[in-house]
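Record minuted for everyone:
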Amino acid sequence: MLCFGATVFGSNAARSQKGITRARPQKKVTTPKKSRINYSQFSHRTHVETQKLTCDACHKVPSKNWKEVRKGDAAFPDVSDFPEHSSCLNCHRQQFFARERPAPVICANCHVNNSPRDTNRYLFPSLGDVIDPLLKRPEFASEFMVGFPHDKHIDVVGLNAPPADGYVRALFINASIQEKKKDATPASCPVCHQTYQPQGNSSEEYVAKPPKTLGDNFWLKKGTFKTTPNSHAVCFTCHNSDSGIAPEPKDCNVCHKLRSPDASPKADFDPKLASEMGISDGVILARWSRRISAGAFRHEGGEHPNLGCTSCHNVATFNLLDVKTLKVPVRSCGGADGCHITPTTEDGGALNFEIDQKKKDPAFICTKCHITFGKDGTPENHPQAIPTAEPKKSPAL
C-alpha cells in the first residue's frame, strides 16, 4: 500500500513539475429553458385562475360600439367588442411594444390583419347573430361552457311570432296559461332551438352530394341538427339592467364557466367522414362533434317532427356543465307504442335487429343510429330498453 501510495504521489509530483496536471472536467449544469409563451393565443384560464382577474377587469358592459354592430331596433346594450388596449397594457406593455414584424404577435388576438396599417378587428364571439360578409370571425374553440338552467326557463319563456327583421325575441308569460299537451313541445323550446338547414319540401335530401355507391352507408342529411343560441339576444331580453332579473349582463361568470378538461366525452362523430363529405359549415361541425348519443339521428326525419321535445329530452335533469346529463336515453326510441324498440325482432324494431346481429357476429357494425359507436360492443342499457314480450294467449276453445 505504501509503495502504491508513493508511486502515485511521485507520479503526480512529476506531472505537476512538468506542468501537465489537468483538472477534472466539470459537468455542465444545464438550466431548464422556460417554455416560450405564445402570446397570439389568448388564455382565459391563465387570466382567471392564475392572475385572479374578474370579468369586468377587462370587459366593459356595454361596449362602446353596441349601437353600431346591430342597427335600429335590433341594437341592445351588449358586450360587443374586445377589451380596449388599456386593459392589456398594465401587464403586457413589453409584448405590445415588442420589435416583431409586421406587428407584435399579441395583436393577432383581436386584429384581422396583424399590421399597424389595418385596425380592423374580428367580430366579437358573442355576435353570432350579426351577419356581415365583410366582417371576419375568429377561428377558435371556446374555453367556456354555459351554465343555462333549462328547468327554470321551460315554463316561463314563450315565443312571439318572429318579427319582420328576422330576430327572435322572448317574453315572460304566466306558466299556467301555456297549452300543455301530452308529448307537446313546450312553447319555450323553439325560442332557442330550431331545425338547422331543414329539407322542407325540397327534393335535395343531403347536406352534401353523396357518392353514387352510397348504399346503406350514412351520409349527412338536412334537418339533422337543432340550433343553439349564438348570442345574448334572447337572454338579454329578460336579463337586462332595467328588468332587475338576475343575472344581469355584467355578471358574466354566472353563466360562463371555464371548461374542464374532461367536459367533452367521446362523441358519435367521425372527422374523417366529415372531411370526406366536404362539410365546412361551423354549426353542423359543432353540433355533430358533440353528439354523444346517436350521431345519425335526424330531427326532421320520419315521425320525429311530430314528437314533442320532452318526449326524448329529460329537460328537468339537464346540466349544461355536465354533458353526460344531456344524453338522450335509449328508451326514448321505443316504449309502449313501439317504434325502433319492440318486444321482439319480428315486431320490426331496428334496435332489436341490430342487437341480434351483434350477438351473431361481434364484428357487426350498427349503422341505423350510430356513426362511430356502432363499432363498439352493445351497451348494457340497450338490451335493458327492450320491453318484455307479453305471452301469447291460447286461442279460446
